[in-house]
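Weekly sync, protein design subgroup
Attendees: M.S., D.O., the rotation student, P.L. (late)

Item 1: inverse folding check
M.S. brought a backbone from last month's batch and wanted to see whether the design step gives back something sensible before we order anything. D.O. pointed out we never logged the input encoding, so this time it goes straight into the notes. Structure tokens as presented (225 positions):
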């Protein structure tokens, strides 16, 4: 019996999508359906990947095709029409989607900007991007990130999820210095009002040395902006 034209087209579409994954080893997002304008649609939020057996597509790979990296203080900051930021005014970035992807983008944007903003402007600009734990109050003094610098900042090499729920996202961010040295900074974002904000430890953050990226989701290309 001859199959219906719709079933034949569906079979070809599924086969083509599988072939793309097998031949090119691309993320599932590469098989997104085209939009009415013929453009590929950005993926919906994926389950968080913890780099353990049985995981499917790492979130970093899903996100990478829809992110551009913008140069800022020697590092690359991620930006996406889907996940944010929707507003950058001076050194302040706001407007991130209420998704895991939006939280990841916000973490890198906020950690870098809070590390690189200098002088007396820090408090006023940080108030738009951060709160201070445990009471989640607005910052009234500089809270160090652990890698503050008025020079060039390290590159973001990858991330490792610690936990996520709609109110709070926690991850370790891998930093790579100009000499290739790897370090990790612990980052928390809290959903406040209608946006993600960095939740800063009252005594400031710190970085720890990393021997490698085992357990991290590395970005496919090191984001240099």
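Designed sequence read out in the meeting:
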């Amino acid at each position: 019996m001859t199959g219906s034209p719709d079933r034949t087209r569906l079979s070809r579409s599924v086969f083509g999508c599988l072939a793309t994954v097998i031949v090119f080893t691309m993320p599932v997002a590469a098989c997104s359906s085209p939009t009415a304008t013929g453009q590929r649609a950005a993926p919906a939020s994926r389950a968080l990947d913890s780099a353990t057996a049985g995981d499917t597509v790492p979130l970093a790979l899903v996100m990478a095709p829809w992110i551009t990296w913008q140069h800022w203080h020697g590092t690359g900051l991620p930006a996406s029409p889907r996940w944010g930021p929707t507003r950058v005014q001076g050194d302040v970035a706001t407007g991130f989607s209420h998704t895991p992807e939006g939280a990841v983008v916000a973490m890198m944007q906020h950690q870098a900007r809070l590390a690189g903003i200098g002088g007396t402007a820090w408090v006023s600009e940080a108030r738009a991007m951060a709160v201070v734990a445990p009471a989640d109050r607005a910052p009234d003094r500089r809270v160090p990130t652990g890698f503050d610098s008025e020079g060039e900042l390290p590159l973001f090499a990858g991330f490792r999820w610690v936990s996520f729920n709609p109110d709070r996202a926690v991850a370790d961010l891998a930093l790579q210095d100009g000499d290739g040295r790897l370090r990790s900074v612990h980052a928390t974002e809290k959903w406040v009002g209608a946006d993600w904000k960095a939740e800063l430890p009252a005594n400031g953050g710190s970085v720890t040395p990393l021997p490698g990226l085992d357990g991290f989701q590395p970005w496919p290309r090191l984001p240099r902006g």
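Discussion: Residues 59 and 218 are 10 Å apart (CA to CA). Residues 59-218 form one domain.
Action: P.L. to compare against the previous round before Friday.
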